[in-house]
Amino acid sequence: MAGERAAQRLVAIFRSTATPIRTETPARHTPEVKMNPSGDVVVDAVSVDLEDYFHVEAFASQISRSRWGTLPSRVLLNTRRTLEVLDRANCRATFFVLGWIAEREPRLIRELAEAGHEIACHSHLHRPLHTLNPSEFREDLIRSRDAIENAAGASVLGFRAPTFSITEKSLWALEILAEEGFHYDSSIFPIHHDLYGMPDAPRWPHRRPLPSGQMIWEIPPSTVRMGRMNIPFGGGGYLRLLPMSFTRWAIRRTHRRERQPIVVYFHPWELDPDQPRLTGSWRSRLRHYTGLDKTANRLEEILSCGKFEPMIDLVRRLDAGSRSVSDSMRDSRVPWFEGAIPAQLESSAGGATLKVGQSA
Ligand SMILES: [Zn+2]
Question: Is the distance from CB of 204 to CB of 328 less than 8 angstroms?
């Protein structure tokens, strides 16, 4: 279909070429399916990586961490915009908070928690995991968790690594997360990308057995399978850069055919077309600044397409659910799951569906 071809072309541009992207007029909202053909409501998750515009990896080589405190912060303004989007969609979200922000804006974090949003962890200094050794990661994790929990007045159970930087080389981080009491992770992006990604990782929420015998839930951002590729949709730059027709198609396919939840992520700075412009490579500027004026409309349309909840609610449904995850694990062709599915996975929960009328 035309939407698929356009998406593939834009994904290629997004990754590696210098072809400029022409922005488009946001499409008007069209109500989408909210239940699958079996009559199940598909329960989705929405998350926000709570950081400022100068924290992003794309500009890390130009903005040293020692300069962060000298730059004009827009995180309060943009978190207000985020809350307006969520309020209009009448949904609660997970906020993966940078510990650095929790230390400086504790009242904001407490306000989010008191509004019913889940407060989770996005590390302390936004350092990609491949730049840290295990002890450095644990130290950063504990410092950020303490700052976030002190601000929120609530326990932190979820983690998302900066720049989705849990990859084949940093899977050791999952063990540390489990040891530190984290219940789930959302850092493994099952795609090819120049900065992150594990293209053979499972595309759906799943429970991962760790070498120590511990388990941890993994909640990947949404992708749609096209040919031999997983194409991301509904989050971050993909939300802004790919045609909305493709995103709509991907949502319908995920809900109707694959009967799986949509996992949305975005950043407050993506709602801020007027943020200060930073210098960087053409690719960084393309990824960061393109389509900022579209984010709010697109998010509102996506959030009207399903039943969106904080990620911990999705995980709790999975914990309490009845469907096996074995199908999605086999489908993912992950080397460490080839062959027999571990018994604990067969008996654990899978696709997060909720019968109409069933209590949450
Ligand atoms: Zn981040």
Answer: yes
